[in-house]
């Protein structure tokens, strides 16, 4: 009979995460953190959609430094988004988004989030939009409203205001949401 000699296989080094997968996960986390940090913008919106005059956090003031910082050291005022409204669908199946800031400036974005127009509401137009948002009372609306029989090639609207998001197809829009739409610039540029 022959004797066989057995040897142990060399130990494999511990398997580490793939660098590409780790880098992609880290990049996604950083992107999400940047997006979330930009949402707060340092102020707390009031129910009427305007910024709270006090910052959410403030830096301590050194003794004797005075209450008002000099113009060169003061941070720029934070922009507060009053409303973000998106329209998706239609015959062409396109998506357009309008972002209206608290000062009345607005930007239109195409389906890929690229700028597709900008402008500023008049003071009267901004006040009319604020009034329409108060009347629409988004927190009391269903988060998603759809008709029993969907309209083919119809539009679906999403509204985000003061931390509340509401989505509705065109046949389920409340009169308040219809008024909000009437106070907005057009979703698509003029031909």
Short synopsis of the structure:
With 191 residues, this protein is α+β, with helices and mostly antiparallel strands. The chain has 3 helices and 9 strands, in the order αββββββαβββα. α2 packs antiparallel against α3 (175-182).
Core attributes:
191 residues, alpha+beta, two-stranded antiparallel sheet
Span between N and C termini?
94 Å
Helix content: 10-25%
Structural class: alpha+beta
Q: Please give the oligomerization state of what you see.
A: single chain
Strand content: 25-35%
Helical region count? 3
Give the tally of β-strands: 9
Evaluate the radius of gyration: 26 Å
Q: What's the story with the biggest beta sheet? A: 7 strands, mixed
Order of helices and strands: HEEEEEEHEEEH
Strand order of the largest sheet: 6-5-4-3-8-9-7
Using the alpha-carbon principal axes, give the shape. globular
Low-confidence stretches: 12-70
> What integer is the average pLDDT?
74
Describe the structure.
Helices cover 23% and strands 27% of the residues. The protein is an alpha+beta fold and 191 residues long. Strand 3 (81-89) and strand 4 form a beta hairpin. Helix 2 runs antiparallel to helix 3.
């Amino acid at each position: 009979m022959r004797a066989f000699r057995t040897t142990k296989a060399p130990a494999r080094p511990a398997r580490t995460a793939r660098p590409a997968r780790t880098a992609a996960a880290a990049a996604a986390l950083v992107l999400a953190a940047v997006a979330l940090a930009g949402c707060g913008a340092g102020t707390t919106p009031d129910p009427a959609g305007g910024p709270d005059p006090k910052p959410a956090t403030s830096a301590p003031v050194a003794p004797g430094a005075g209450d008002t910082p000099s113009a060169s050291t003061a941070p720029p005022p934070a922009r507060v988004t009053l409303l973000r409204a998106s329209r998706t669908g239609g015959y062409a199946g396109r998506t357009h988004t309008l972002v209206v800031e608290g000062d009345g400036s607005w930007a239109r974005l195409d389906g890929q989030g690229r700028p597709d127009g900008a402008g500023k509401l008049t003071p009267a137009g901004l006040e009319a939009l604020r009034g329409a948002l108060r009347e629409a009372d988004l927190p009391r609306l269903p988060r998603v409203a759809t008709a029993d029989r969907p309209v083919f090639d119809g539009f679906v609207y999403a509204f985000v205001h003061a931390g509340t998001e509401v989505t509705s197809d065109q046949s389920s829009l409340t009169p308040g949401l219809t008024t909000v739409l009437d106070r907005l610039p057009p979703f698509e540029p003029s031909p």
